[in-house]
Design a protein that fits this description.
It contains 13 helices and six strands. By secondary structure, the protein is α/β, with parallel strands linked by helices.
Length: about 300
């Protein structure tokens, strides 16, 4: 075919406006929808990060909402006032197509992790401290794989919350997670995910729009490496019977390593030192923990087997 007979590419001004109103997960949806040539040809994407506007009490770009042809969003409750999605529907054109997806979250795939100063799973360590165990006893018990981090309860709670959110959304992901999380790496952190989840969700959007679906992309696009990637430990691997292993380097090449001992012992220390202690004992225990981590690193402890 002569190049002069090829259809001209649409400019952004000629394309329909897809407005994504979501938290950081919306950035990943943007990345994967752009992988569809058919979607790219039809839509240009603008993102409104809802959490930034809510936290900073900024005025929303309502003129952009008034121009949207496609509105992809996470539902925001009425308690957030002007930022609530029900309120924003009033500004969308009548012909605007609305597609909702849930906040995809699971806090039960790691023993501990810290978000905004809060350590998830810390109640397990707190109960050990309150029972009278010393820092060394807790560390020894942890390294021996003998602490129950209540994965069953935490997983059940996380999935129940996700399913309740999905009752009001077009995109569903809970069943996909339950069916695949043991054999596929799905979560980098509690709310950041791998290709598998994002392609599963993006394909539901493309299906609603009657556009061709995406095929699985094995290599993680850099744009979707949001935030961090927490190390895999024998705790969740053995409890859930995970059939895969991964290292931080696959997602974050700048990471030094994927040592789970160091990652979790620092969090255990942070929990322990949140309790009142005599000054001298606190200094002594901090030195112990520092040296214990260094010793374990030298001995090679805390590494999953290399793939």
């Amino acid at each position: 075919m002569d190049i002069n007979t090829l259809p001209a590419q649409k400019t952004d001004k000629e394309k329909k406006l897809c407005l994504i109103y979501a938290n950081c997960q919306g950035r990943a949806f943007d990345t994967f929808l752009r992988m569809s040539a058919e979607f790219q040809e039809k839509y240009r994407i603008e993102i409104v990060n809802n959490y930034i506007f809510i936290q900073n009490k900024h005025n929303l770009p309502l003129d952009t909402f008034k121009k949207a042809d496609l509105f992809i969003y996470q539902p925001i409750a009425a308690k957030h006032g002007v930022y609530a999605t029900d309120n924003l529907f009033e500004y969308l054109p009548p012909q605007c197509v609305k597609i909702s997806f849930p906040y995809i979250y699971n806090d039960a795939l790691w023993p501990l992790f810290e978000v905004l100063g809060e350590i998830k799973g810390q109640e397990v360590v707190v109960s050990l401290i309150e029972s009278g165990l010393s820092l060394k006893e807790i560390v020894d018990r942890f390294c021996a794989g003998k602490i129950d981090f209540q994965f069953e309860r935490r997983f059940s709670d996380s999935m129940a919350i996700l399913r309740s959110k999905e009752e009001k959304t077009d995109v569903k992901v809970a069943d996909f997670i339950v069916s695949n999380f043991r054999t596929k790496k799905l979560f980098l952190t509690h709310n950041h995910h791998t290709n598998a989840i994002y392609i599963h969700c993006a394909n539901q959007i493309l299906n609603i729009l009657h556009l061709p679906l995406l095929h699985f992309v094995d290599k993680m696009p850099a744009e979707t490496c949001l935030g961090d990637c927490w190390p895999q430990s024998p705790y969740e691997t053995n409890f859930y019977g995970l059939t895969y292993q991964y290292a931080w380097q696959e997602y974050h090449p700048e990471k030094i390593d994927s040592n789970w001992h160091r990652f979790y012992l620092k969090l255990i220390g942070k929990i322990y030192f949140s309790f009142p202690l005599p000054w001298l004992k606190r200094v002594s225990l901090k030195s112990y923990l520092y040296l214990r981590i260094k010793r374990d690193l030298v001995w090679g402890a805390g590494y999953m087997n290399k793939l």
